[in-house]
Design goal:
This protein has 827 residues and is of the alpha/beta class. It is built from 25 helices and 24 strands. Bound molecules: adenosine-5'-triphosphate. Residues 26, 28-30, 33, 65, 67-73, 256, 285, 500, 502, 526, 530-531 line the site of adenosine-5'-triphosphate.
């Protein structure tokens, strides 16, 4: 076993290496970096060459490595190194003589599928470029920049005119600028990076990518024919002729998986590529041991086809829970992750064993859901619902009893005006209609908008949400806030957060809704256990979905069972007096949540209202112009909803702060959570139909017990709206665009939303007999359950209060009210 080389040994500039270790605490390269850096560098004599092919600095590169292994730096570092060296290789010692300048236009383009990812790469780029160099060497001329859907094109054009040396972009917006922005100079482009290639393809960007590559080739050929490598600006720029720069454009493709679509893209985008593959990361970084790295030559091919490698230190579990108890099981799971301490006033003490040590970092949990509406609902519920009143008072085990302040951003009144036109719920999810304050707001007034809720059920825990229907500012700021927070926190999100996003120190991933494809499973769990850190992942399944475990096993993914009863035992720590029965405790919790959702817990008093949704700011922000168009080629999520220009984003960022309890709050109407629950339920049933066709035998709506499913949204009854909603499914191939693309940030993110009153009641004739869940047989299909995994009535427990309703419902599938073939087709 050979020792891991240092960055310097790999050929990286010593000052750059020093900057990485002292300023960014990055001392040891990861396997993919060990593979890529020499391959992409013009290696100087005396440095390590891991492979003969690394001499050929002109060749394209394919980087493949599992999630969270440092692919971003794997391509950024060699690019920055080469620009740096080329700009300072001057005989006279005067770096200005080299002519490196932002006016040369864009030298490197990094294409990413989503805006969050673009922002994240830009932040990494900023960090690396902050390096302080010897006086004779400067990096100031390397200007990083970002253009992406949702931002204002006019300001982007201005920045492109001034020159952006390393440009991070989403494909639609890049194509737009290539076609329409005269001043966008790519004549001297030397690097094109396609990051998260598999995701780019899944979002339907293949055509855009082909056009982009074609346009870039044409521009380069034109420029080269006219001026050679000296460039068309000064006609003789030594920098551009430096042997450190690739003579032609070097294209780099990054992917965590090796699906056939990715290989097809590689075939088109790459010429004679070097294949760099990162082996498994050592579990503790840096330990200098056991790094396996392979750099393959031109004909290097991936050996395995499934290629779903997951970090070995990641603990993967699943839990089987009856549909009706999903919500309680989720709450109990979160309670297990976020233990509490006895409040000073209380005599009941949680078991000490569950309490973390004082120096343990607070957990950060990401919960994946299948639709935007479901994210809105769960964030609102977990973030606001109060526990049963007889639960003992507890305090957070992490924040020493004090409630951490909530991060907020400023939003201009002009946004609220846009919201009033139908999207108000996005910003004030619990308002039945625009609040009185918002309605009378002057366009120039700004509001504070809280990015998180503080959870009464989980004291000290902040609850965030992220999905593609949120305004871009909210998405970006939520990503940043959750990523940076050191507070115990939960993020409810759709798959918009599944790929590439590097939330630091995520300890747990919960897949409450199974992913629509196995690839998504791998990417979702890749948000934890990054760079050798520990992590845990938990997959929720209902009994009829247990077949999914075989699908995972077939892909080499092995998950262990978690016991349902053990998971719920935590509820006994907050037990009703003299109750040792976990079922009673679970029932109490379910009833409380249902009351909370239906508003039957009584009208909230002013002091009970969440205090942080929107509080009027004392100052005003300039109102933004009309929305700019988002990328049209498919891809970024939610951009059509609202747009912010960069300045306003910056302004919002500057204003980021925390709200205190004294902030005035906008009152929320009592029934709005119920609306969210219904919308979430509807969207959830719909998105169930979007699973991959190969998994339809497992995830088929026919197998769902709609009544029990409704319980998991704290609804006592199946909302009648679901009928009309699901019966329209056959018409809803709009989830894919006319070009056959998926919806903007993943098809399940954009499961249709419930908006306003139901269009048409579907049915109120009940049909399916809703049996009570069989507690003894939950989690497994046994004698107490019917063939489809649902509890049978025979084994019901009459004395079990939860769930108690036995309603007759129309079975839309039986009565032909819903064409099941249409339901399952093509979605
Ligand atoms: N050599 C290193 N040592 C320690 N940390 C590193 C190193 N390289 C990168 N990191 C950090 O690891 C994290 C993950 O890196 P990155 O996002 O590039 O991974 P990735 O492979 O692109 O993951 P994904 O496939 O999920 O996008 C980042 O926070 C980054 O700063």
């Amino acid at each position: 076993m050979s020792a891991v080389p240092t960055f310097e040994q790999l050929g990286l500039d010593p000052e750059l290496s020093q900057h990485l270790s002292t300023k960014l605490s990055i001392g040891t390269p990861t396997p993919i970096q060990v593979a890529s850096i020499p391959a992409m560098l013009k290696t100087a004599a005396g440095t390590v060459k891991l492979d003969n092919s690394s001499d050929e600095t002109e060749r394209d590169v394919f980087l493949q490595s599992e999630t969270g292994t440092g692919k971003t730096l794997a391509y950024l570092l060699p690019i920055i190194h080469r620009m740096l060296v080329a700009s300072t290789q001057t005989a006279s010692g005067d770096i200005r003589a080299q002519g490196a300048s932002r006016q040369l236009g864009t030298l490197a383009i990094i294409l990413t599928p989503t805006r969050e990812l673009a922002k994240q790469i830009q932040m990494t780029l900023d960090d690396v470029l902050k390096l302080s160099l010897d006086r004779s060497r400067r990096s100031y001329w390397m200007v990083p920049g970002i253009v992406m859907g949702g931002d204002k094109k006019a300001s982007e054009k201005a920045r492109l005119r001034k020159g952006i040396t390393i440009l991070v972009s989403t494909p639609g917006r890049l194509l737009d600028h290539l076609q329409n922005t005269q001043s966008f100079c790519v004549d001297h482009l030397r690097w094109l990076v396609l990051d998260e290639a598999d995701r780019l393809l899944e979002l339907g960007f293949e055509e855009s990518l082909r056009t982009i590559i074609q346009l870039l080739n044409e521009r380069r050929q034109q420029s080269f024919a006219e001026y050679g490598n000296a460039g068309n600006l000064a006609m003789n720029v030594p920098f551009l002729q430096s042997p450190e720069l690739p003579t032609n454009r070097q294209t780099v493709l990054c992917s965590a998986t090796l699906k056939k679509e990715v290989k097809r893209l590689a075939g088109f985008a790459l010429t004679d590529p070097i294949f760099c593959r990162g082996g498994a990361l050592p579990t503790k970084q840096p330990n200098g041991n056991s790094v396996t790295t392979r750099v393959e030559g031109a004909d290097g091919q991936a050996t395995a086809e499934s290629n779903f490698t997951t970090p070995s230190q990641l603990k993967q579990h699943y839990i089987v829970t009856p549909a009706a108890q999903r919500l309680v099981a989720l709450t109990a799971t979160l309670m297990n992750i976020f233990p509490c301490r006895q409040a000073p006033s209380n005599r009941l003490v949680p078991r000490e064993a569950t309490l973390p040590s004082d120096d343990a970092p607070p957990p950060k949990v990401v919960v994946f859901l299948s639709s935007c509406d479901s994210v809105d609902f769960h964030q609102a519920l977990v973030g606001q619902a109060k526990p049963p009143r007889f639960w003992p008072a507890v305090t957070s085990a992490y924040s020493h009893g004090s409630s951490p302040n909530v991060p907020f951003i400023s939003l201009a009144g002009s946004h609220l005006q846009t919201l009033r036109d139908g999207e108000w719920r996005l910003l004030a999810p619990l308002s039945a209609k625009p609040s009185a304050k918002a309605a009378t707001a002057k366009p120039s007034t700004s509001y504070r908008y809280a990015l998180a809720e503080t959870s009464p059920i989980l004291p000290g825990v902040q609850v965030y949400r992220l999905h593609g229907n949120l305004p871009q500012t909210v998405r970006t700021e939520t990503y940043l806030a959750f990523s940076r927070t050191k507070t115990a926190s939960i993020l409810f999100c759709t798959d918009v957060a599944a790929r590439g996003l590097d939330f630091s120190n995520v300890s747990h991933i919960i897949q409450y809704d199974p992913p629509s494809e196995v690839t998504d499973y791998v990417h979702r769990i890749g948000r934890t256990a990054r760079i050798g850190k520990d992590g845990e992942a938990l997959l929720f399944l209902v009994p009829s979905e247990e077949g999914y475990l075989d699908v995972l096993t077939a892909q080499g993914i092995h998950v262990l069972a978690k016991d349902f009863d053990q998971q719920l035992a935590v509820l006994l720590q907050r037990k009703r007096r003299r109750t040792e029965d976990v079922e009673v405790a679970a029932t109490d919790l379910q009833k409380t949540l249902e009351r909370w959702v239906t508003g039957k817990h009584g009208q909230k008093t002013a002091s009970e209202q969440p205090k942080h949704h929107m509080a009027q700011e004392s100052h005003a922000l300039a109102s933004s112009d009309a929305n700019d168009s988002d990328d049209n080629a498919g891809g970024e999520a939610g951009g059509s909803v609202l747009a912010d220009d960069q300045n306003q984003q910056d302004e919002a960022q500057d204003d980021s702060a925390t709200l205190t309890a004294a902030e005035p709050a906008i009152p929320l109407p009592p029934n709005s959570l119920e609306q969210l629950a219904k919308a979430a339920y509807t969207a959830s049933v719909r998105s169930y139909a979007t699973h991959a066709s190969a998994e339809k035998h497992i995830f088929h709506v026919k197998k769902l017990h709609l009544g029990h499913w409704a319980r998991s949204f704290a609804l006592e009854d199946t909302p009648t709206e679901v009928g009309s909603a699901t019966s329209n499914l056959s018409n809803q191939t709009y989830q894919r665009s006319a070009a056959g693309n998926f919806s903007r940030d993943g098809r399940r993110d954009h499961a249709p939303s419930f908006r306003g009153p139901p269009q048409k009641a579907f049915s109120n004739n009940a049909v399916r007999q809703e049996g009570k869940p069989n507690w003894q047989n939950r989690g497994k299909q046994g004698p107490g359950q019917s063939r489809n995994g649902l509890p049978s009535r025979k084994h019901d427990f009459d004395d079990r209060p939860f769930p108690k309703k036995q309603k007759k419902q129309t079975d839309p599938f039986k009565r032909g009210n819903l064409n099941t073939d249409e339901f399952s087709s093509g979605l």
